[in-house]
């Protein structure tokens, strides 16, 4: 297995420094770290804790409480496929199966080269254009298998 | 402020504003069940068991976090309350294993009691299997989180009371649990195994590993812990004649609900299989069991014979800082009245003489003159030459609480990084033995920059001019100046110091230098001298009329002292230069030793008297604050042992001069009648310090400075606490800290076996490469699992205080065996 991309500690130190004197620094700090790095590397938690005057266990508690904060490396592209009812009846299951096959990933897994992470979600709130998926911040509605091909060609190209 | 009136179960009751419903209900004698509530912790409303109904609007409120409001109509047992409370308990039990019958928490489990009280029989809900691996590598605490109800008492105890921060909630929902950083086992975390959470956990999720399946304590006896100078109030849980649980006293005391690992392991020592269960007599070179009658008779005969042949000055007595005030008093009387000599001293001199000399000559007090609450309320705290994390845990808790929760500023003066380093605003790392110069520099900064009320100082104190003149030779660096400003401008400042200051050459001068700081800024009520042993403060007596403890060793070598009574002390380990002390003691014509264990010293005695532990007797200890802690008899003396006070009375009687006491209370009464007010009145006097910089006397043969440090998992000479099987299991090796640079020069890696040697002794240890000590120094605990660092030291007496300088010495270091 390819190792996770190395973490640029200086980049993280800079983010910590930018936020540490604001009033409630932890959440914006860790969100920014996740935006830049893709996740919150556990080895940086003691640095965060020291900067904000908390114990590492306390920062870990905040990070693990929030479902959308991650402590493990994630792919550059996070693919989310909707498994809500509307998407399901309009073929979402086939979309998911096709993507699983194409990426060789199960729900929640990250590819060895850290290009992709596959996740399922319960609803994206846009059932009118079901079935839906997202790649990073790009949203794709009215999906079908040939559109899946296009999406991945685009992100690979 | 107007009281607030509410209706409680149909009764009109009033309380102060800000009071919670639970607090008011308790005050009114109305019982509301709780799981997550504890008087020492911030309420968080986690368990919801305490819910009550506001019948005005039907709201169900967690009474522990809801303040009373005018006009509330509260019912603590309405139908809705009962239904919901039952549901909450059932939901908790749905994810709780059916292990009550074999759970060690057994009859003391709060969850089980609450379930019974609210009448939960069948759980009814579908059970949620909650397979959690039980963690049990450390010998102290066993966690079974399948029994956790997420009340966060352990988390709050850890963060709010002992301020270690080892655990917090981890994940959420069904996955939530208290966990360490990285969810590693406790022994790999910051946890100090203080046992505070163990005593608070309402279920069997956190338990003491030492006493599994011993049943439920049927009785509790409050007493005072004997395992450091803090004198914590503890509660001994008894089942029959065994102590099966040790918890912090519910009545407060200096520790206020907290504890440390040494205290929780005290029962190991008391019930150790190694305890002496009968006196012993030397017969034909071998120690053989003897009756009390024969042993006391032999001891008395020995003393009488030596006295007859060589006179009373050939007799000497060493008492211990682990003996009670009453026992020390009895021994004083025994020595002077019965033996007829003034040769009595106690091991307290080794720990306490320096502080006493410095304090007495300046502000006329014997030790700290305010309590831990005062320390916690300080806004600036200086800690110098002390590692209270290890030497006085509850002092460290108080300092950390002051810094973390009350905004106090901490100035740490220590060459090493300690557990307080991360809490310090300023950490000054002076060279060893140069504290007096640094403190002098701070005093100079205070005077030069006018940070004092000079007029009042001149009026109210003695020798200000003398001090001023003495300060000219000091300089202060920027950190010292900053520290001086912080200290001088504080509303209430405290200084805490320990053996890092007192056991260096000229220790008394270092202490004087810091007292000068306190007098300059009128902060003399915030002086905290930490003590090492449980009764260091009470056992120390001045003036010394005969020989001091260490001088006695020289006197034996000279042939002047021929017989000795040693009570509760093990000089071979406790005094410097173990080899020399052993040789000297074996020269004695008659050596009588009273101890709980067959110590190194007892082994060479002619008569060994088996004494009882602190749990088996009455008496008092005086802790470092000056607080007198009462000992209460929890169990009868273990078979064949007697309390030291009883032994002394028996000896006096056998000597033909019985002492007029039948029990320990009569002794206390006589002490109370004799002892007046201990503090002197009158103005404080500055003590100018004639500082001499320590010369670098390391040489080619012994190029390293060895530093002895305190260790949380051992104490004193290690004689008593080393009989805790749990502490032994946890630290069975001797570790030596070596600075990174030195380690790489000598090609020493973590885990290598190294030899440390001085001209008088040597020992081997496992290397621990560390970045927290300065290059050129190595550090080992004063007390080792296999003996004492004292084997490396020679007897060098501080001129002024006749105490030993067992803090640093020059050593050689070499690698013996590589690790793997």
CATH topology of the largest domain in chain B: Rossmann fold
Tell me the helix content of chain A.
40-55%
Number of strands of chain B: 36
At the first level of CATH, what is the class of the largest domain in chain B? Alpha Beta
User: Mind telling me the C-alpha Rg of chain B?
Assistant: 29 Å
In order across it, which strands form the biggest sheet of chain A?
A: 2-1-3-4
Weakly predicted, low-confidence segments of chain B: none
Distance between the ends of chain B: 72 Å
CATH-defined architecture of the largest domain in chain A = 3-Layer(aba) Sandwich
Task: Give me some keywords for this one.
heterodimer; A: 157 residues; Arc Repressor Mutant, subunit A; Glutaredoxin; 7 helices; 4 strands; 11% strand; B: 820 residues; alpha/beta; Rossmann fold; seven-stranded mixed β-sheet; 28 helices
Describe the model.
The complex is a heterodimer of chains A (157) and B (820). The longest helix of chain A is centred in the N-terminal third of the chain and has 12 residues, at 26-37. In chain A, a hairpin with a 2-residue loop joins strand 3 (133-135) and strand 4. In chain A, helix 1 runs antiparallel to helix 2 (26-37) and helix 3 packs across helix 4. Chain A contains seven helices and four strands. Chain A has a four-stranded mixed sheet with strand order 2-1-3-4, with helices on one face. Chain A is α+β, with helices and mostly antiparallel strands. Chain B is of the alpha/beta class and 820 residues long. Chain B has five domains: 4-77, Ubiquitin-like (UB roll); 129-270, Alpha-Beta Plaits (2-Layer Sandwich), CATH 3.30.70; 280-347 and 536-674, Rossmann fold (3-Layer(aba) Sandwich); 362-529, Dimethylsulfoxide Reductase, domain 2 (3-Layer(aba) Sandwich), CATH 3.40.228.10; 704-817, Barwin-like endoglucanases, CATH 2.40.40. In chain B, 30% of the residues lie in helices and 20% in strands. The interface between A and B is medium-sized, with 14 and 16 residues.
